[in-house]
Design brief:
Elements lengths: L3 E12 L5 E12 L3 E5 L6 H8 L7 E11 L6 E3 L5 H11 E4 L13 H12 L5 H14 L16 H13 L5 E5 L7 H18 L2 E6 L2 H7 L2 E6 L2 E7 H6 L4 H8 L14
Helix pairs in contact: 3-4
The structure holds adenosine-5'-triphosphate and magnesium ion.
Length: 275
């Protein structure tokens, strides 16, 4: 495998309820540096559980019942066993190395704080050495990068459209220049045009900054546009993982074909989003 960033091996998660739910079953995958890996599958197949699991974000009743996750740090050259990190190491790992845009994230902004101060908080917590001035400058730069505009620094969440709020969440995830961004349904609530703009931008930013993306959605056509490779998940398992081209042109698994055929609006060439 050429330059892997993340190696997931035989990874399983069980929700310890009655009866137990085997949400993720023996998943293995390698994420490459700089690639966008799409994760598709219908509601309840285990996408969010897998995404949380590989970042150690799961809480009880979830139990990691098998497997390992290795992160190959491009900055230090070290390989990190994610399951073995101590709480303090884990906290740094989560923001510095890996960041997450949560499902429904744009509604998670604090309604009574400006977006500028919420972005500044990230630096205040994780970069305590930065001065107030440096933080401000970094926040303005981030707002420019995600095309919200630095002049919106004093805006409150309700003054922004859904698309803009989602861009703020992406800015937050980008803040510490992580090597991996996990995005769980980041554009689902947005209209198609805004979705496409944001996707194009994510794609461009990863070229610029070189991070990898795990992009989760049940919207397979969207993934075909943005992803380098796509993993198809069903009932906790990855049933097919291949390049977006091959998933689209020559799906091997019956379930992939079923998923593709359930999107009648999918016509013509793939690649509407500029890559
Ligand atoms: N806290 C929990 N306790 C028990 N079962 C859970 C819990 N969280 C999730 N599950 C179950 O685990 C399975 C996988 O859920 P998960 O949220 O990972 O799916 P998903 O693919 O992200 O779905 P969606 O597309 O709706 O977001 C589902 O059967 C779900 O009901
Ligand atoms: Mg989910």
């Amino acid at each position: 495998m050429r330059d892997p960033l993340l190696s997931v091996r035989d990874f399983s998660v069980v929700y310890d309820v009655d009866p137990p739910v085997e949400a993720v079953k023996n998943v293995s995958l390698e994420l490459r540096r700089g690639e966008i890996l799409g994760l598709a599958g219908e509601s309840g197949c285990g996408k969010t559980t897998l995404a949380y699991g590989i970042q150690r974000l799961l809480k009880a009743p979830a139990i990691i019942s098998s497997g390992s996750v290795e992160f190959h740090d491009g900055t230090t050259g070290e390989t990190v066993d994610v399951n073995a990190l101590h709480p303090e190491q884990m906290r740094r790992f989560r923001w510095d190395k890996v960041s997450m845009v949560f499902q429904g994230a744009m509604n998670a902004l604090n309604p009574v704080a400006t977006i500028g101060s919420q972005l500044e908080d990230v630096f205040e917590i994780h970069r305590p050495g930065m001065s107030r001035f440096e933080r401000r400058r970094a926040v303005v730069e981030l707002l420019e990068i995600v095309k919200v505009g630095g002049d919106r620094i004093r805006s409150f969440p309700h003054e922004l459209s859904g698309g803009m709020r989602q861009r703020v969440m992406i800015a937050m995830a980008l803040a510490l220049r992580p090597q991996l961004m996990v995005m769980d349904e980041p554009t689902t609530a947005l209209d198609v045009l805004v979705q496409r703009e944001i996707l194009a931008q994510i794609s461009q930013l990863r070229h610029e900054f070189g991070f990898s993306v795990i992009f989760i959605t049940h919207d397979l056509p969207l993934l075909l546009e943005i992803s380098d490779r796509i993993a198809i998940m069903r009932e906790g398992e990855i049933v097919e993982l291949d390049t977006a081209e091959r998933i689209w042109n020559a799906p091997k698994h019956d379930y992939t074909r079923t998923l593709l055929s359930s999107f009648p609006r999918l016509t013509g060439e793939r690649g509407v989003v500029a890559r």
